[in-house]
What does this fold into?
Amino acid sequence: MTTAEQTYDVVVLGAGSTGENVADIAVRGGLSAVLVESELVGGECSYWACMPSKTLLRGSEALAAARAVSGAAAAVTGEQDVAATLARRDGFTSHWDDASQVSWVEGAGIALVRGHGRLAGEKRVVVTRADGSELVLVARHAVAVCTGSRAALPPVDGLPDVQPWTPREATSAKEAPRRLLVLGGGYVGCEMATAWQQLGSAVTLLQHGQQLLPHLEPAAGQAVEASLRALGVDVQLGTGVTAARRDGDEVVLVCDSGDEVRGDEVLVAAGREANSDDIGLDTVGLEPGGYLEVDESLQVPGVPWLYGVGDVNGRQLLTHMGKYQARQAGHAIVTRARGEQVDLADWSPSVATADRLATPSVVFTDPQVGAVGLTSAQAAEQGLPHRVVEYPIGDVAGASVFADGYTGTAIAVVDTEREVLLGVTFIGPGVAELLHSATIAVVGEVPISRLWHAVPSYPTISEVWLRLLETYRG
It folds into this structure.
């Protein structure tokens, strides 16, 4: 074993989109930076999450859109080419080759070290490379932990032994399993149930709670449940799983009712946990495992040179939120490296609301669900004076142009004291592209009186904004 040592201004553990952005901002700010990565540069989103999952869903979505328009529907004379859909997915992941991402890193002036990095005391990281050699990286100013998260396995007896799919296997599978069991009815469970049912699997979705997408407005989960059932998915709500086993080639799940459910593969989509248990946190006085506690600049309290950015801090486990935090942390690192004071007021809860009050998210099911801000239940829990306004999107002229028989719902949660939007949810085909307008309205706390003068173009689905305001004003 050989050991060498290199020094950089900033050492970044994890070369996913969050780590790439932290390093890029540091370099743009005049610092040197190195990324440490043991897997593929580009991370989860590029190879096992956002990009492959959405390409698996897009073909079915495009077919549904064509079939929903008279005239265009006549041109659809066959079914989806599953092999071509999987091939297109493979193209978006570059066939799980990160050469293009590495090229971008090098072009941005960022160094890259392959291997598993662990903290080894103050501002030191030891990287163990594939050949067993070690490289010590010393940071002049900061170490940013951007190691992300991984699928969590619920405490089900025997579950690890049946070799369950995680989202990684679900998005990279080479063929549709004949029968797929999905454990969990959140974003991943609903999207992958939609995708694989449409690609030829017989899907059974088991959800412990009484509704799908439980953190969104109830109408969202109800609409997606109805759609999944219409596709042929066996949706079983209020169903816990107590044990799992293999019976030959079959996976057998034992439900808390005593019933057994059988399939060829089981996808566990029951939450995530931080990748923080094997990165040397104990060497700097922190408890290994769990999410990192951070302040408004993403700095770890008590360890002023250490930052926890993206999924690893548990604030919002979304790619776009990791990039948002990367900008926050990157600028803080550069500012402190220059010997200047970071103005935390710029990232105070009253200003930087995205992590807490205005996180946008899209569920790419059929129908799509786009949501930002608080739900009506969350507003009630916080004791905020509010009113919920709903409007059927299908009643908007633009929606009827978009698709024959368009059905969908727009839901606004309005703060009745301040007359601003607390949250907005859109449910329906193609609504993902409506979400950013809602995000701006919620983040900007734009008064209803001003939104009234933001006139939507006719005939577009965006006209639902006008209808929501009219309904609120009565």
